[in-house]
Amino acid sequence: MDDSSNFEFAAAEPLDDIMQKIADHKGCGTSGGSGKSSCGTSDGPDDMAPEIWEKVKNHPCYSEEAHHHYARMHVAVAPACNIQCNYCNRKYDCANESRPGVVSEKLTPEQAAKKVLAVASTIPQMTVLGVAGPGDPLANPAKTFKTFELISQTAPDIKLCLSTNGLALPDHVDTIAKYNVDHVTITVNMVDPEVGAQIYPWIFWKNKRVTGIEAARILTERQMQGLEMLTERGILCKVNSVMIPGINDKHLVEVNRAVKSRGAFLHNIMPLISAPEHGTVFGLTGQRGPTAQELKALQDSCEGEMNMMRHCRQCRADAVGLLGEDRSAEFTTEKIMEMEVSYDLESRQAYQNAVEQERLAKVAAKNAELETLAAEEASDIKILVAVATKGQGRINEHFGHAKEFQVYELSSKGAKFVGHRRVDLYCQGGYGEEDSLETVIKAINDCAAVFVAKIGHCPKDELTAAGIEPIDQYAFEFIEQSAIAYFKDYLDRVKRGEIAHVARGDADIRQGAYISA
User: Could you tell me which of 5, 50, 73, 33 has the C-alpha nearest to residue 330?
Assistant: First the structure.
């Protein structure tokens, strides 16, 4: 596998041409469920510049398709922050919360470097190292860039990323480029200071605390300046936005246009995580987060402007593993300091080559199924389905063991990933929890079916009664290939009058059980 962590655009290629490629492809492709889109759903480089594909092909955050196969890790070397957000409360020594700003332990750059080597040696599909907090990486520049320096020396095949609020970003673009940090995420929640004043109580700017609209004005100006500077360097930028109903939900459409016009590669609109026990201002004041349906509607409304990231898991600042899993408990400082680490680049590359072969097989299977779907009579029916998966792009999770379900929209164009739904674990200690089952059904009640590797009789009956078809005949098969095959059968049953369905939102979902056996 090629080492793309130090990839640069060809020296002979004019910068304007590079930026035009990013703009033309909206960072990636735009063909949605056809199987040749990107960022969110790409299977390959067919509709993006090769140099961009090299940067995203095995990056689980920048490619939805890649996140089924490749892992990331965050190292908590940046405790200080230069702004205060009403949705954030940085917590240390916390193992029970899964959200940004939370870590179990802080690390020095040297400890972080050894942890990266230990994780990369144990998890060969780990391709990305990010600094995302628990504060702001650029409010801790010495620790952040020392970490990148050490990793680039010892593990040059690993991609380097950082996530920032953007306040200090313009001051560090040269250093970001120096260390070949090819991916930067900026959290942009507003471009209107009056909206921003409701989100940010204060910023720390030029050695003093600034509050209110003036603070928000400074922040948005610095964010936009930093975004423009990064994209001028050919550094891919993802923009994160937290959707806060009643405050910035409608405004995020304007944010979307603003960041696209400045060259952002991908926009990730995330739901507000808000609960009193988190100790945040919004949690304590009762500010609610959006429903899954509200979030999807906003993402859909912005997708015409640029590609949306829909597979974000809002990771902890010390997360390790595939998106949707966290193996950080296996790599505590105490454990890694006792480990004898041997970084075998050749073995990592061999493993990743095998992953790529599996990935190609998945794409081929999906495309073959798409060809048969294309031969069917066109239909305007769309449905949502939920999938229980542990990764690798397969239906390989027991219903009772699922902590989340991935949601796909099925139509005549194929299968399109549209999000995920976190749920309470149904199976605990070998027994099903009826209260948990109720929350699972509520989480996926807009889905026509749920795909699982295995499911018990009781939850199967309850799902069927709720109008959600439990599907286990595709156990351990590829998700998209199976979903398309199911959709073809679904359309056939609709034509035969065996299934009744009614439009709800932008998808047609089955209501009740079968009309006939």
Answer: 73
